[in-house]
């Protein structure tokens, strides 16, 4: 199933509705008689339009919006809680794996969920994804060591990947996605910090449970939408098991599975402009999420701030992203003067400048510098976030929009997997190499980590390791800049 569309239309007669069933896409339309006409069709044209009330439509709307909000919040709320978690479990060297495990599994399952949605229908797939996400979040909240937390994050990602991929293919109105991401990005780090300081970091995960229940109940109204026909076993036979196995294996081995759907969509990778969208999304994700993960470490360890204050310190970065995300969307929708490449290039330049300035952070960096540098980087991130999606959708034919969107989301998700893994390895090695000889080999032992704090004598070495990490994001942003060059001639179309 390719997606859902929402738009106000006059009431349709039965003949007109039947004619619309022949379209390849499925649509949800609000009619003038307070009902929503649901149209869903595949190549067999076996689906019939159905009516749902505006209340049911609103519940579906809220449910899918909540699903996007949940997954975005889960990615940002943990950023301010991670330093405390790592120090509590005496596993600072494994900190990066908490996010790497989530992002890796999420990236692997997103394309698979797309195929499952086509075969089994979106409603059972979404409900299954919510259940897995909730179960994984519960395990995270109950974790007793870092190993259990890492595995639990992977379980949560089994559902999170399905929610992210399915909802982005469902909502064709990008403003909804921008709004949900924006709100989650701003409140996530702050809420995570408040929970960590005043209650427990476990609530950063457990809060997903009541929110998920609301989402699950709302999504149940998707049962009013028709599902693909055929028996359960016939649907199982339609799954590309070999392709799914190849995708999982290749991604775990850190190879980009460019042919995850087999040879059916390989032609997309022969278009340099489409590949450019994939490249920008990949390196954009590497730079943004990697820096977002390590900045709270700077605030809480180097600056000795609480998790709540570190969440507040991230607000300038998130507000810069939100503002420029909305601005870029308006720029693209209201003018054709600027090409997608121009917007992505300028965003990459801002990311390079911001990363370079952030890499100068030290124990003595003042508040105004932190705010200013964070805003610059955030503005660059926000310019690119939706631009690559819109560019990819504008390049390909209509029937390939859902496919190219899935690929862009996939590359944006797989990027942080590589970025966080690389930066985590660099940080651990730089920090350990600067330790006094008598402390080598005991970096994360009980003697060094006392009551969740790094000894003051090692703060400078810690800051040095983070500065090198932040400096590497300059390379990621530079690669995003290079990748955006083929898009310089691609402008929005009306």
UniProtKB/TrEMBL annotation:
Keyword Transmembrane applies: yes
Protein localization: Endomembrane system
Domain of life: Eukaryota
Entry GO CC: endomembrane system; plasma membrane
Keyword set, alphabetical order: Membrane, Transmembrane, Transmembrane helix, Transport
Transmembrane segments: 57-83, 95-113, 125-151, 171-191, 203-223, 243-262, 274-295, 307-324, 336-358, 370-392, 404-427, 468-490
Protein name: MFS general substrate transporter
């Amino acid at each position: 199933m390719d997606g859902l569309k929402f738009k106000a239309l006059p009431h349709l007669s039965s003949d007109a509705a039947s004619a619309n069933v022949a379209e390849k896409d499925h649509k949800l339309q609000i009619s003038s008689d307070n009902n929503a006409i649901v149209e869903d069709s595949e190549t067999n044209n076996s689906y019939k339009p159905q009516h749902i009330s505006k209340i049911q439509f609103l519940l579906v709307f809220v449910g899918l919006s909540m699903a996007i909000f949940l997954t975005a919040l889960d990615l940002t709320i943990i950023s301010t809680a991670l330093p405390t978690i790592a120090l509590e479990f005496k596993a600072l060297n494994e900190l990066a794996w908490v996010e790497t495990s989530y992002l890796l599994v999420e990236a692997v399952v997103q394309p698979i969920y797309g195929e499952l949605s086509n075969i089994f229908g979106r409603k059972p797939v979404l409900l299954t994804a919510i259940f897995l996400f909730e179960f994984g979040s519960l395990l995270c909240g109950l974790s007793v060591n870092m190993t259990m937390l890492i595995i639990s994050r992977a379980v949560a990602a089994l559902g999170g990947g399905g929610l992210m991929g399915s909802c982005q293919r469902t909502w064709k109105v990008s403003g909804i996605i921008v709004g949900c991401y924006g709100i989650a990005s701003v409140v996530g780090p702050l809420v995570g910090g408040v929970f960590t300081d005043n209650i427990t970091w476990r609530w950063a995960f457990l809060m997903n449970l009541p929110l998920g229940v609301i989402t699950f109940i709302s999504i149940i109204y998707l049962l009013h939408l028709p599902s693909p026909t055929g028996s359960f076993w016939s649907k199982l036979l339609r799954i590309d098991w070999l392709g799914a196995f190849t995708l999982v294996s290749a991604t775990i081995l850190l190879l980009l599975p460019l042919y995850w759907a087999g040879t059916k969509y390989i032609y997309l990778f022969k278009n340099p402009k489409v590949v450019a969208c994939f490249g920008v999304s990949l390196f954009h994700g590497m730079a943004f999420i990697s820096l977002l993960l390590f900045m709270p470490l700077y605030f809480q360890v180097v600056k000795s701030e609480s998790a709540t204050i570190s969440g507040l310190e991230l607000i300038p970065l998130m507000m810069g992203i939100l503002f420029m995300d909305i601005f870029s969307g308006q720029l693209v929708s209201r003018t054709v003067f600027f090409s997608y490449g121009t917007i992505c290039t300028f965003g990459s330049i801002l990311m390079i400048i911001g990363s370079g300035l952030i890499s100068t952070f030290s124990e003595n960096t003042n508040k105004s510098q932190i705010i200013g540098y964070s805003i610059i980087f955030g503005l660059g991130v926000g310019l690119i976030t939706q631009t690559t999606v819109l560019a990819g959708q504008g390049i390909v034919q209509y029937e390939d929009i859902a496919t190219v969107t899935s690929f862009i989301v996939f590359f944006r998700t797989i990027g942080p997997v590589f970025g966080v893994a690389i930066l985590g390895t660099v940080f651990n090695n730089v920090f350990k190499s600067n330790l006094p000889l008598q402390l080598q080999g005991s970096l994360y032992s009980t003697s060094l980590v006392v009551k969740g704090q790094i000894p003051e004598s090692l703060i400078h070495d810690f800051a040095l390791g983070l500065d090198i990490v932040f400096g590497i994001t300059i390379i990621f942003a530079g690669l995003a800049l290079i990748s955006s060059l083929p898009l310089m001639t691609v402008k929005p179309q009306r």
